[in-house]
Amino acid sequence: MTTEERSQPPQAIPGTFVFTGERSRRGYRLNKLASTLTDPANRERFRADENAYMEAMGLNAKEQDIVRRRDWKEMVEHGGNIYVILKIAATVGQTLLDMGAQMRGETLPQFLATRPGRQGHKAGR
Length: 125
Description:
This protein is an all-alpha fold.
């Protein structure tokens, strides 16, 4: 790769979101909330009253809405880091596979059918 090629901005891949500094700043509150869910007591508080927990963490109305809707794709677009957003999913009983299916607009069986080696696999439910 030449110096000129390295200085060019990355090309967008359709359906993906580059985790830029601006996106990181926008997703700060969402990522902070998700990070707190590593603590079992916080997971219990979140499950007991999501609205109160999100309010206490300072999430704005839009952020609270995308968490309530479990819109994983919008959380990432908003600046959520997939590795910490996964903590929200796990807290509410969803897996990375569930997230992937929702992000692609597919059912879990449809999504699993597209995964190498997953054909005919039954999700652990």
